[in-house]
Here is the input.
Amino acid sequence: MDNLNICSQISSGDSKDHQLCLTIILRRSGTEILVMWDNQRALLPLVSVVRQRCIAEQVNQAVHDYLGVSAYSLFTLKIPESARAESGLVQVMECLAPEDYTPLRGAWVSARSLNSESFRSREEATIVTSALERINTARNDDMQAPFGILGWIKELLHWAQEQVLPLGLRLTGQFRQLDARPDFALLRMETDADGLWFKAVGNLNRREYPITLLFSRLFPRFLPPLVAAHPEWHGWLTREFVASALNISAEPSLWKHAARNLAELQTESLEHIEECLAAGCRDLRCQSLLEQVVPFLEVMVELMREQRTVPPTPLHKSDVFRLAAPIKEAICVLSELEIPDALGHLDLNPGNVLSSGERCIFLDWADAYVGPPFLTFEYLRLCARQACNNPAMDSELVEAYSERWSVHVAPEKILNAFQVSPLVAVFAYASGTGLWRNLAQIHECGVAGYLRSLTRRIEKEARVLAEGRRLPASFQSTEWRI
Here is the structure.
């Protein structure tokens, strides 16, 4: 399939679901590049990818299928739509095939021999220059961008083989690359037995590295088996845990098993709170949550003011600030109940929960926190409602989760905690990661709409609490201040 046919396929299909991606495929330490030819003018190969899905794995597979080239991704370059009509993405890759291998389509040419006149469009020449410059930058800053350097995948496979050799495992050389960024890696490697997973994190989520190592030592029953750590890359290697992810299961028993295991993990964490905080877990204890209320709402006022699309209708400034009282009051209720602070997870989406029916593990601890434990369960509970569409299961989840906590907390306190946890949970999830603290970062990460949505959800939960789950009289005053 040539570039023209790929473009035609997308044009005749659903362009809303697909987009085209230019590929820069390098070999021989970046001195050669794979190009197509159009009337003696070079052009970069195009592949089709599905929007909103991991680009790296799709492009790797498409390059193999369309070009017959085994390659892996280094990083994605985003370019203005005006740069080229067919694509707004560029994937920079390295070929893994032997140097004498001939691709099904295209040809290898010297990168030095290409200039702006060599390409069908000057934009593609500029893109190639930009990609090569970025690779050189990564090479000069290998500690900050180790996965933007040519050859890193071979180094990883060699290192992984050394780590698993004492386990009697041998890598086959096959792997799935799920994400590709200069400072982040996530891939699955095949062995002659168990699969292996390698994950490495960059500056944004650097805390996940020490947290994962600590949790693997303190709570090994709830995390994938750790094989080895790679300190220079802030990465770790684990054995694959074969189980069903909750995001593809509506089986009630698996969800109840997850709720029970979450409570067991949290109660086991009670003796390790200081260690968790020292490792980098976010501090979302009640006092910390209280201190965030007014500053968070001030930023939300600004985000509501910036909203340009309607619906939904943006909340008025007075409506946003009016939320301060019920949020603070609900947090105070949790504080007065004296439920011990425990480990929590601000990203416990169903894809991060794997259950075998006998054992349950929890993934992706970049947003681990220490604070009110029931907030994490509220999110799991909400996901179960959406996935299972079984109203009767809600009480069963609550029972499974509460059973373990009843050893530490009186039943009436558990009941009162469940009354206010929905409101506090939404606030904690909205404010807990700290993204809201920098307006420039909010816009850079594209989360303004998400934060506005959570603020509306806070307003809804505050109304529900006021109308149907009245707070104790001692916390009705709106004059309470931190």
Q: What stands out?
A: The longest helix spans residues 286-306. Confidence is low (pLDDT under 50) at residues 6-14, 470-482. The longest strand covers residues 171-181. Residues 151-239 form a domain with the Phosphorylase Kinase; domain 1 fold (CATH 3.30.200).
